[in-house]
Write a structure and sequence with these properties.
The chain is mainly α and 663 residues long. It is built from 24 helices and eight strands. The protein is globular.
Amino acid sequence: MRVAADAAALRDGLAAVPAAERVALVDPGFVGHVHALRLALTDPRFPAAAVEGAVSAQPEARAALARAVTEAGGAPGGADAEPGVDAGAGTGRGADLAPGADTDAGRGAGSGPGAEPGVPESAESGVSGAAEPGRPAPGAAAHDRSRAAATPATGAGAAPGRPPASAGAVPVGAVIARLEAEGVAVHRPELGVLVATVPADDDTRTKALAEVSAVDDEAVRLRSAVKSRDGFFTTFCISPYSRYIARWCARRGLTPNQVTTASLLTALIAAGCAATGTRPGFVAAGVLLIASFVLDCTDGQLARYSLQYSTLGAWLDATFDRAKEYAYYAGLAIGAAHGGGHDDVWALALGAMVLQTCRHVVDFSFNEANHDATANTSPTAALSDRLDSVGWTVWARRMIVLPIGERWALIAVLTALTTPRIVFTVLLIGCALAACYTTAGRVLRSLTRKARRTDRAAQALADLADSGPLAELSARAAARRPGGGATAPVLAFAGTGVLLVLLWWHAAPGWWPVLGAGLYAVLAGAAVARPLKGPLDWLVPPAFRAAEYVTILVLAARSGAPGALPAAFGLVAAVAYHHYDTVYRIRGGTGAPPHWLVRAVGGHEGRVLAVTTAAALWQHGQGFAIALTVLAVAIALVVLGESIRFWVSSGAPAVHDETGEPA
């Protein structure tokens, strides 16, 4: 931390910080909670963030910050200056403000036993070497409750009160105002009961100190670590104690990525236990699956508690949930085959994965279609809002959709007490009912709302469609025809219907499904020939996912070839990963995967044609299972390799799910 007495010193201090690092300015008159400063100074998701008296800037906003300092320093106390704020500002190196360091002013303050590394006991900002009477000075041991106010002074033992102004000092409030005037998106964290202010006189300062003392910001920090909207099981059976596990991890320097990895390993061990096919193995698998879910909740709570959001963490969090669940399905299927009954439930396991993935695509498509739509209201949405005002209906509706907490609890209990066949049967019934409930509600909302969808939403739906070269060729041909034809959902469902009818027409695989795949490619291309801005156009990607996944499932189940269903399970898992990866890239604002990748893996229509052709060529023996295995491995290598390259690159977004939407 450095102290700058005037604009020139402040500019020099900013220039001395390497361009690739974050910087922060904090008014030495700042009074507030430590966690208020954490929210403004350490959250890596925003180019700039501020609370009253403090502002931070990532490298991309550094140039704008320097200009704002120059302009604000030219007119201290002028019209743009915050009233009564004329103290100097301190600059902190971005390394000191990284997640886990919390605030630059507190470096070294957390050295006492049990203190979180890098967390100051008091939010002393701008001047070091002094503290509020009764509070430890920087470098002293700090106890856990970070609820002190900032009381910067000019020397050790100085009496509380507003620090003296220095001539030419730069008001931090004026810097923030000029940043926003320049068009920089300055994030203003929601403080709630937390205090962040720069008092103008002793009376307001005394009042602010009293307000700070009345609120335990550690308790606020713990509460805010939990999503505001989550499922019933997670809210009442996991979060009441997992938040304390998150704090325990933070105090020992563990990162969210490490906890995420531990959750994955626990789930894989659970899958291994289920694969034994024994009752003790099933019981252990159920217990470990719940333990994995506890850790899954903990990693997000740890990220929010310590503000450790990262690009790698975004990728891990976005993909590991599905990897854990689907690996567990495979473990149950292996266990059923190895158990005393030698039950083959691979078709049920693949069906559960297909249904669950299609449910998620419905969620993603609907949300992307309405993400930034204008006039986005409907009577159905208004009714939903009214129901939310009745407490018990909120939890009932969240449980009906079988979110991840309820789903994993159901799977764990049934695994311990019943057989894999019963697990999958109950899971398929529950997920099917949930899918019908959510899809019907969203269709009603779409038909009754008067939303105008944007070009961004249309592009997102086109990216989610995952169209390959064949569909693109058909789309170009359809685009040349006059408009006024069938709508996109009609064409998409028509193509899906033709494909599935021809699949079921013959008991054994043959060339009719190949013809169906060709017609499907033509209709799929026509469906995306024009921008997807219709009220129900968000149904196009789910229709394509259902067509592709169900085709693989039906052909593998009917082939009778040994190993065909496990190979089909692997193929759908590889393709589903590609689709989930697309979703999280779009959510991060970076767009879909590169076009070459979509073309390399064939697009949904190309893969359908490849699988139906393989089934026709190798109707007997191991040929079809080998073809599915080769296709699964090839797609997995290409997709996973490019995905890893993207998510560990500097250009990847720090995506983190704060909505609490069921998964």
